[in-house]
Design goal:
The protein is mainly beta and 722 residues long. It folds into four domains: 129 residues, Sandwich (Jelly Rolls); 141 residues, Jelly Rolls (Sandwich); 157 residues, Jelly Rolls, CATH 2.60.120.200; 154 residues, Sandwich (Jelly Rolls), CATH 2.60.120.200. Helices cover 1% and strands 40% of the residues. It contains one helix and 41 strands. The strands form eight sheets. Strands 1, 4, 5, 7, 8 and 10 form a six-stranded antiparallel beta sheet that branches. Strands 32, 33, 34, 36, 39 and 41 form a six-stranded antiparallel beta sheet that branches. It is globular. The N terminus and C terminus are likely disordered.
Amino acid sequence: MVGIGSRQQSAEHGGHRPQQDDGAGSFPGAPKVGAKAPRTETRFVPAALQLVRALDLPAGSCAFEENTCGFDSVLAFRPWILNEEGHYIYVDTSFAKQGDKALLLSSDLQAEEWSCLRLVYQIATSSGSPSDPSQLNLYVRFEDESFDRLLWSANEPSDSWLIASLDLQNTSKKFKVLIEGVLGLGNTASIALFEIKMTTGYCIECDFEENHLCGFVNRWNPNVNWFVGGGTSRNSHSVLPQDHTFKNELGHYMYVDSVYIKHFQEVAQLISPMTTAPMSGCLSFYYQLQQGNDNVFSLYSRDVTGLYEEIWKTNSPGNPAWNLAEVEFSAPYPMELIFEVAFNGPNGGYVALDDISFSPVHCQNQTELPFSAIEASCNFEEDLCNFYQDKEGPGWARVKVKPNMYRAGDHTSGLGYYLLANTKFTSQPGYIGRLYGPSLPGNLQYCLRFYYAIYGFLKMSDTLAVYLFEENQVVQEKIWSVLESPRGVWMQAEISFKKPMPTKVVFMSLCKSFWDCGLVALDDIAIELGSCQSPEKLPPPPGECTFEQDECAFTQERRNRSSWHRRRGETPTSYTGPKGDHTTGVGYYMYIEASHMVYGQKAHLSSGSLRGVAGKHCLAFFYHMYGAGTGLLSVYLKKEGDSEESLLWRRRGEQSISWLRALIEYSCERQHQIIFEAIRGMSIRSDIAIDDVKFQAGPCAEMEDITPQSSGYSEDLNEIEY
């Protein structure tokens, strides 16, 4: 028997045991990267690993033995260096300094089937924990997008090789993989790549025939651990089986043996890579238990918050040969699988595991449809979607308001529909309007997001509340209510919840007193799987900016009192500017402060450089132009090499007290920038603001607002239904 990463040594004779779980996986036998990547020393690489790496690798893969396999360093940045003896490439402080970047770009790739991208890497640093560590980022660059999508990032130093496993959903689009190394603080920092491998299939699948074990790791326990079984060495106190993959002694599998057990309830855990894309279907694997022994073999799922859920457990000893297990597995948000064996003593025998696979179709006799977030969400532009009210008469009305200076429009676009509960018209205090959402399957983690606005009401508490209604019970549980809120501002609410039984979300408006009633508005209800506060959420793609953290990639040639400013809340001057941002109502936006400028003065906000691609682009953003003296807001396209910009879109004068959405469609096959230009109007009441900028590939889905130099609204937007 052998430990993870070494197939020659016996644990019985002091051989290698699995290393402690450090959250990624490791290669104990792989060459170590020191403070500086070696170029003259001879480094040992296990023969089995050399054999695997010598095989023809699929597209998008490289073992960095003799060359970089079509991966090229981007010339505008530091190069990745191929080690003279092969085995890896690196960037370090012997030829680069802190903050320098090295970019590695693949050739064109395709993943028409679901694929798994594995990256074996090491980030090394000098002793101590630097405040500014080195960072390794992996992006996906689709052929029709002008920006790169961040898929994965790491900055934890390690003294061994680590493995990252990343799921790539199937797509018909061509794409490239971009690997970025950014050197951190310290004079001995280095980043190295040992192997990149892209294979068809899911990252949670494994037959345990390769040294990296597909990124599965053992959680270290002094007395009981998962080991690699099979191969030419078969030393054990138990009679271990042949592997399932090849049905002979040369193949490999994972097993755990009770021979070292010293206490009752000793537990061994084998942990899969974390899923990185939503998946739902049938998980299958083969297992074998030694007959008549007291052990418990279970399978758990665990999300990024650490929440465990048992999804399978052995209920009988099974056959002496390999047994097939099929488990319905749904991972709508990042999850890992934990194969756990609990022993009650040293006579617990062994448990073996092999050939873990996944299929996107349901297991046999499973007909339950997966949860659809689209069916549980609504922006009320067309109808009530799958929401309904419990009675006829006054309740929640679907309304639309023409953009004006006195009433805010909807949150979706400033021009569309939303729901309004008008408790002013009730004939009795205690009026309640209930809005029910669709049924949500039980035992799943949900994130509910919605926007609300309150008008009137002297006392605001409980004017709007959210309840959970379990379908097999009469009792409703309140999970959220308004405490205090700015009046007339669209505010975002976020609620995470999980219930064992099917549940409906209920929105309830309430007027406690006949003398204190008002209006409650509701819009853009969205229900997603997972927690609202996921600790491992990646930053938004470079094509999106909400200005919540910073100004993203936007820049200004000069910064002074007359520049664009990042702000939250109301602007200093009355009767102009927004009361809050568009993203959450309490977040940040960019604006010009007219009181610091003179009539006709301009402020420019430029995007980062965008890659030119064939086809159409869509730029979406929200703008706010409220104030009697409001000037101009224009959007320009500046192509690389051109001295002048071309006008894409313009608005002149006061538009609305609401945030309004703009959709701009354009084409550009050259490197380019987008420039927002605001011009101060005739009075200090001419603040102009923008928020929630988003670049998308392809034409705009809705064509309401894309005509350049238009200064008014089309006739069909003058409709008032309330």
